[in-house]
Amino acid sequence: MKLKLAAVAVATGLALTACSGPIEAGSAATVGDHRITTDTLEKNVAEYQKALEAAKVAPDQLQLPGTLTQAVLLQLANISQFTQLEAQNGISVTEGEVAAFYAKNNGQAAVDQILLQRGVAPGATRDWLKVSIGSEKLAAKLGGGSSEQQLADGQAKINELAGQIPVVFSPRYGKFDPQQGWLPNDRFGAPPAGNGAAAG
Q1: pTM to 2 decimals?
Q2: Given 47, 66, 167, 185, which is the most exposed site by the fewest CB atoms within 10 A?
Q3: Rounded to whole angstroms, how far apart are CA atoms 47 and 100?
Q4: What is residue 178's predicted lDDT score, i.e. its pLDDT?
């Protein structure tokens, strides 16, 4: 099953603005004026690992961007950046729109399973869907319509606006390059003790 998600829009916006650098103690990342704490990240990683175990999926079976921890952190940063970007541009997504999306794609369980393979913890799936649906709305608004070319034009404008909401990751979790994503380094992004699997 292929979901109609603006995943590329979300990932591209972040990739254009994210970097690694100095950051406040106790923070995994800062996204514009929002702080993703290490506690929030660790909670999401634990939840994500538990969901993988329940689905009987080993982390090394997934094509995650970086390690399991880095993948979860990247998705949290995506959600935060696009939540802010869409709010600044008057875009909102209702619970009804999320429910309709689930209904069109074989239900919540099926959608959540696909998002799990992308590094989205179960507790973050509704927020992820909201920013994904919202990014398509924003692309249509900025591009002047919903044709393929108008959406592409809108996406280009989104990429420009995303630069106004910088993302900075704590070096503790690895080095992020805007063009290449997470750079390989076994010292960074290791899953919490108790999970021997490491991706990337």
Answers
A1: 0.82
A2: 185
A3: 25
A4: 73
